[in-house]
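Job type: complex structure
Entries:
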Amino acid sequence: VQLVQSGAEVKKPGESLRISCQASGYDFSKYWLGWVRQMPDTGLEWLMMIYPGDSETRYSPSFQGQVTVSADKSSTTAYLQWGSLKASDTAMYYCVRSRRDSFDIWGQGTMVTVSS
Amino acid sequence: DIQMTQSPASLSASVGDRVTITCRASQDTLNFLNWYQQKPGKAPQLLIYDASKLETGVPSRFSGSGSGTDFTLTISSLQPEDVATYFCQHYHYYPHTVTFGPGTKVDLK
C-alpha cells in the first residue's frame, strides 16, 4: 500500500498548478483520500478529502474556494489544483489515505514553491 | 471550531527516559484522537489511533491514553530513533473537519 506523489514545483505568483498522488496496493475507490499542508517549519493543516468511489468531497472552510481536489479511478490518482498561486501557498503538500478518523498512509510529499 | 493544544512545545530527554506528551481539545473528541510521528525531512507516520490503539508495526514502547478532552502519548524508554516531532489529531464528524495539534519536538539531551 503506498501513495506516490509528483515532484517538486517552482512557480510564479498567478500561475496555475496541478500536483498528483498515485495510489497502489489497495482498492482506491473505497477509501477517502485527503491533502495536508505543512508550511516551512510549521505544523500540519488539513485541506480537504475526496471519496474516489463517487467523487464526494469535504473541504476545510479555510481552503474552500482556494484549491480544488479531484480523483481519477482509472489511473488511481488524486489531484490537487490551484488556479492562481500566491506566495503564501509555498509549502509541502502531503496526500493521505483516511481510515475512519485517522490518516494511515502518507505520500512522500510534494514541495510547492511560489516566488517571483 | 475545535482547538487542539499540546504541551510541552519541546523537550529534551536522555536515552532510556520515559517521555510524556499531552494533547488537550477544546471540546469532547469522542476519543477520535490520533498521534503521529514526523522525523526530520520525512512524512508523518501514524502511531496511535482512537486514543490508545497501537498502529501495526509501531514499537510497543509507544502508548496512548486519555478520553474526552485530555490525552497523553507516552514513550516508555526513549530511543535515538524517536527524535521527531509528535502531533495529535482529531477528526470531527458533522461538520467534517480535521484539526492537528501544534506539535511537540523531542530531542536528545
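Summary: Chain A touches chain B at residues 34, 43-46, 49, 58, 60-61, 94, 99-104, 106-109 (CB under 8 Å). Chain A has no helices and eleven strands.
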